TrEMBL record:
NCBIfam families: proC. Pathway: Amino-acid biosynthesis; L-proline biosynthesis; L-proline from L-glutamate 5-semialdehyde: step 1/1. Gene3D superfamilies: NAD(P)-binding Rossmann-like Domain, ProC C-terminal domain-like. Its main location: cytoplasm. This is Pyrroline-5-carboxylate reductase. Belongs to the pyrroline-5-carboxylate reductase family. GO terms for molecular function: pyrroline-5-carboxylate reductase activity. It comes from Adhaeribacter aerolatus. One of its GO terms (biological process) is L-proline biosynthetic process. It catalyses: L-proline + NADP(+) = (S)-1-pyrroline-5-carboxylate + NADPH + 2 H(+); L-proline + NAD(+) = (S)-1-pyrroline-5-carboxylate + NADH + 2 H(+).
Length: 272
């Protein structure tokens, strides 16, 4: 693929930055040596150097080295980072990828004062095992560069291209969403413990069951209710359990949580 020989700088080696780096290398399409990761506290990522990644606390050096620059700091840390790299960002050389929630392409180009191409990407932490659902959007990037970013994130999961105004919604549904499903699995395992299983086996059974449910939808391209109809025997125990959950607000809680996350995602960045 086209990006294979390109160098990538990941500015902000935290949860998502490191997950991205590891996923790219695990995919076999990139070598650790092609990736330079920055973090203010270098000791926190020292072990990555032993795995062959380049590490530094110098964002300017990392930007100079790479052609693809991933902005992976918190929204509230972004302006300081952009100010630090402003001089060395070169629109003729660099393609910026921002994973920062709630930060528009125009926020970044305005802060830099440069018409550099920016593609926003909203992955989730399953990127570390190449199972991310990543949403991609841009206002100013060429279709060639958008394709380049889609190909990059296709190595670590699935991608969909969306309009930029839907990025906060994508954040809630997919990036935050992984936490929502994990909490649902944890709750299921707690129920499993109460009805007789040891904690570890209950968690394994719940996780594999959740994986099966997701795979049914993805493989059959079916609607959840179609699959649910196959489980709920008349007067059976599944419908009894499901209805009990709905009486307690199961669907409503998820819908309200996703809506709340989406509102919050839109308010994370303050352009001071
Ligand atoms: N955690 C997740 O699942 C997802 C996070 N995001 C977005 O990714 C971004 C990062 O989020 P997380 O990884 O969760 O946060 P994090 O706090 O784990 O990572 C941010 C890292 O950047 C480092 N950092 C801050 N300023 C820096 C600077 N000037 N130079 C170098 N390193 C610096 C911090 O020390 C930290 O290690 C956020 O904007 C978030 O909205 C997007 C999708 C999913
Ligand atoms: O919780 C957050 O703000 C970040 C963005 C999406 C996932 N984690």
């Amino acid at each position: 693929m086209g990006t294979q020989n390109e160098s990538i700088a990941i500015l902000g080696g935290g949860n998502i930055g490191l997950s991205l780096a590891k996923g790219l290398v695990k995919s076999g399409k990139y070598e650790a040596g092609q990736i330079i990761i920055t973090r203010r506290n270098l000791r926190a990522i020292a072990e990555l150097a032993e795995e062959g990644y380049q590490i530094t606390d110098d964002n300017v050096k990392a930007v100079r080295y790479a052609s693809i620059v991933v902005l992976a700091v918190l929204p509230q840390q972004l302006n300081i980072l952009l100010d630090a790299i402003q001089e060395v960002v070169d629109p003729a050389k660099h393609l910026l990828i921002s994973v920062a929630s709630g930060v528009n392409v125009s926020d970044i180009t305005n802060r830099l004062g440069k018409d550099v191409q920016v593609v926003r990407a909203m992955p989730n932490t399953a990127i570390a095992i190449q199972e991310s659902m990543t949403c991609i959007a841009s206002q100013n990037a060429s279709s060639e560069n958008i394709t380049k970013v889609i190909e990059l994130f296709n190595t670590v999961g699935e991608t969909v291209q969306i309009h930029e105004e839907l990025m906060t919604s994508a954040t809630a549904l997919c990036a935050c969403g992984i936490a929502f499903f994990l909490r649902a699995i944890r709750a299921a395992s707690q129920g499993g413990i109460e009805i007789g299983f040891h904690a570890a086996e209950a968690l394994h059974m719940a996780a594999q069951t959740a994986k099966g449910a997701a795979e049914l939808l993805l493989t059959n391209k079916s609607h959840p209710e179609n699959e649910i109809d196959k489980v709920t025997s008349p007067k059976g125990c599944t419908i009894a359990g499901l209805n009990e959950m709905e009486h307690s607000g199961f669907s409503s809680a998820l819908i309200k949580g996703i809506r709340q996350s989406s509102i919050k995602a839109g308010n994370l960045y303050v352009n001071d």
